[in-house]
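Format notes (please read before filing issues)

Several people have asked whether sequences and structure tokens are stored in separate files. They are not. Every record keeps both together, in the order shown below: the sequence lines, then the token lines. Line labels are part of the format and must not be stripped during preprocessing.
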Amino acid sequence: METASTQNNECPVARTLDVIGDRWSLMIIRDAFDDIRRFSEFQKSLGVAKNILASRLKALVEVGVFDVRPASDGSAYKEYVLTEKGQEIFPVVVSLRQWGERFLFEPGETRSVLLDNASGQAVMPMEVRSASGAKLGPLDCHRLRRVDGES
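Then the structure lines:
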């Protein structure tokens, strides 16, 4: 999914959007967090055309977000299972969800809510925190160009 224009880009946001930045890829990943694993289940849940679903799943496998495994029930089907790399996208999906909950629904409008399995309570809002634990906003941060291994 990387394009020539951004694969050499030093911006992590641009590179991330190349991999998971389109609607269908993110919706597939969201469904995987809800334990959907089979092509037919993704297709039924999302209502996406089969060719689009196939191309997105293939690309997500190629970049290491999903592994393809034999079906856990022993059938002839295959399953798409999030890798560790794919699991690490969870905070991104939660942040998008919480932004949408806050700004895209009218009072009284039905929506889904993400609950903590242990407590049954809604998940706390995501926040960016400093190394010391202080809450940070956009004006509290800056970007620095660096090479891995440099301080």
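For reference, the curators noted about this record: The CA atoms of residues 18 and 46 lie 21 Å apart. The first strand starts at residue 66 and ends at 70.
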